[in-house]
Design brief:
Chain A: This is ABC transporter substrate-binding protein. The structure holds two protein chains of two kinds. Helices cover 45% and strands 18% of the residues of chain A. Chain A is of the alpha/beta class. Chain B has a two-stranded antiparallel sheet with strand order 1-2. In chain B, β1 and β2 form a beta hairpin. Chain A binds chain B through residues 61, 190, 217-219, 222-229, 231-232, 235, 247-249, 251-252, 255-256, 259-261, 276, 280-283, and chain B through 2-3, 6-7, 9-10, 13, 114-116, 118, 121, 126, 128, 135, 137, 206, 209-212, 214, 216-217, 219-220, 251-252, 255-256, 260-261, 263.
Amino acid sequence: MSAKRLTAIAGGSILLLALAACSSDGGDGGGGGELVGSGTGAECTIEAAVPIGAAFSLTGAAAQYGESQKNALELAADELNATGGVTYELAIEDDETDPKQAIQLFDGFVADGTSIVLGPTLSNTAKQADPVAQDGGLPVLGISNTAGGITEIGDYIFRDSLTEEAVIPQTVAAATEKYGLKNVVVMYSNDDAFTESGYQAFADALESEGVEVAETITFSKADTDFRALLDKAKGHNPDAIVVSALVEAAVPLVTQARELGIEQPIIGGNGFNAPALIEGAGDAAEGVVVGAAWNSASDNEQNLAFIDAYTEKFGKAPDQFAAQAYAGLQIIDAAVRANCSGERDDIKDGLTGISDVPTVLGDVSLDENRDAVHEALVQIVEGGKFAILS
Amino acid sequence: MQLFVDGIFLGSIYALFAIGFTLVFGILDRLNLAHAAVFSAGALVGIDIVTRFGLSIWIAIPLVFVLGAILGVLIERIAFRPLAGRHDSHFAGLISSIALGTIILAILQALYGPDTHRFPADAFPSVRIDFFGATFSLLQLIILVISITLMVVLTWLVAKSKLGRGMRTIAENPHAAAVLGLNVGRISSLTFAISSALGAVAGVLFTLNVNAASLGTGHAVELKALAIIIVGGLGSLPGALIGGLILGLAEVFAVNTVGSSWRDMVAFALLFLVLIIRPQGIFGARKVREV
């Protein structure tokens, strides 16, 4: 093919794209202040339905999470719409677990006057798509992004999902109290950004709790045989072993630790907070301690009602992704009612003021960094499931 | 003592991989880098057989052995045989086997996804044995026994049997072998079949041992196995076993004396040390090649 023809084709495609962009609805769906209502809080009434966008991974690698999020969001919208005053109109789109697709969706949401967007499902996708919303002045509420740096993208980016940095100190404090920890061995994979930041959080938390670290042992995320490392750990006779690893490494590590006769508690980061740990490690997983943003056993009244409603509607129990999605709309509802307005900047303003809003996750606040603050649940594996450490 | 035992058992896994690897590399003089993919395939298909069809591990292992043999024949046919006439067939085969290994992994990913899989908890009896204050599992002992047995059987096969003589003749001079009336294609296929069958079974045993298998499982072991066969001496099966054990022990002791971050560095530095002392490897004979 000649260079000339290539240029022609390239030029043609750019023209087509430009045409497509022009023909898409550039108006703002708010239309003349219908989104501003009267009254405040519970009395707030808004004429038009508030348009809520969502970009979830309904297909691709993270599809199982996206499905939970979609279900829970629909349930929350139905319930909030039934209470009256303010109604929400959902547009749930599929980001295909692909940042490129998410960027396109966000472009669409910025253009079509959506008031606020929930998602995307994965932190990696959020890092690439959120700047689009930030530039377009569209508020975003992350409901499952736990990686560092997400909310630093800008002042329109919020999240209700607890980060590792928020959960780990609570996990360490609870375990220290329960087991009287004085001396532990820390193990982490030092070639992965996620587990590395988890390790930092553990190290800081252990220091502030006054727990001695006998030794810090590193491994690679691709490792599967940990016996030599565990022998070394066992030699220190620690009160517990603290591990920051992905679930792929967590399963063999826990299995082999029990095999070598290490009976002490194993305290894990978010990588351990997965049903796959219990399925994969079986009996060996007993006594593993891990913090989480949500647990089905938490007995706050809202949570019990949510679990019942979700199970009845979808025929299976909700997971943490569902709970955080449901809480996401509860928080947005509080932010909308605060100024009794569905306009973008009014919602953003309402979100900055979120403090102790009762949700299925407990009482949630958003701090000055727009990150979630609420009580984490410290869980322990007992009888083949995650129970609450008491 | 526990350290020593752990090192020996870790080494026996490396050796299991290296023995299959060196059979083709040392005897036929072909480096088959699809071996890691076969290792992963054996592990994942073995898990599938046990979980989906509810068969016992003792039935799964022979089935995986057969699967490995079939893969071996395919690798030889697709990645090596078409290149036989080229003057750079060694190097071209290396590249084409990497390509084929990648294809095998892509098929595995399509079948089983990228997640980590594992055998059900009760797939293998978990018997623990105490031995002079050290503890290990029955499985680890079986792996060690299998490694040693394979080494002995294969050494005999290569040295004494008709097939072994054929292999060595082909390695020396394929044209002469054909003139002598040896069926070059069949012997090559058979060598690859045995090598890959061992690789696939090694994958199953490795997975049972660590309770995790993923697409990358084979790759982690492959580089170490390469180093092992070079240290052991090219084509030397006892060398592969001893080299594997040395590496296993070096890793375990490195973790406990130098620190976990230095594990691989210490292990590979030791291998260099061996090569400096004996360039031809522990069991290697100095080969004089006429060019």
